[in-house]
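Example record

One chain of 278 residues, shown exactly as stored in the release files.
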Amino acid sequence: METKIPIICLSVFSMLTIGLKIEKNKLFNDKLFFYSVGIGLIINFLLLPVLALMIGNLFSLSKEHILGLYLCAICPGGSSGAFFVLRANGNPNLAGVLTSFMSIGNILITPVLFSLFTGNNSSFDPRIMLKLFLTTLLVQGIPLFLGVLIQAMKKNSAPKIAKLTGKLAMASLLAAMVILTFKNYSLIFSFSMNAWFSVFLVLTFAILSGFLGIGLDESSKGTISMVSGIKSLSTALLLTEIFVQNPNTNLIILLYGLNMYWFSELGSRVWKRKKHDF
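Predicted structure tokens for this chain:
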């Protein structure tokens, strides 16, 4: 519970800040906007899942660990990705739309990808899909909509509010990183080097995946990377809790989460510096 509170706060404040920075009149002006969204969806629902399976098999991970790595790959749309987009000086408009599309994909596409790997069609249970929808609505949809609404009605006040919510998101991130690290430090000694390398490689590809956006500006590439780097681990853990019930699968998801925020922070600095170089 102590881990969930800062993560939920991070998600809410991140999406609220993104909403406050979205400029509706510029939302679809970029000719490459939908191309950027398409690249992001292909990376997260096709390339990353395939890569996770390939790396898991290449490093001879157990079936349970491969499943955990695969689940991390097929559950995009972590709303704290919006925070790292801001850290990387990315595109708030693209971040808001891309995160929303991925969250919808979590409800509609992730169960398909899960059933393809496990052969378990029970993930299409309406009750599970409803739970995913409500969770997404509460921690992503409502804060994002509220931010857009405030930006539209109180345009002069929006930058000040965004600055405050950004600081609250940063504080939540620091709390989440510290709690995750100290609560799960024993994971450092419980996994083989192959498991660590597998997680590192998938995370590295996700954080640098924006380079696949040929023809996009650095802001859009960084946005795709940051959104792709943060996964909806709550969705992954929910699926394992209901259908897998194997502690080894849960542990590698936690290992991914333990490293996800550190990698994303480093990645945001790389993309921020790269943007300044152009």
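Notes: The radius of gyration is 18 Å.
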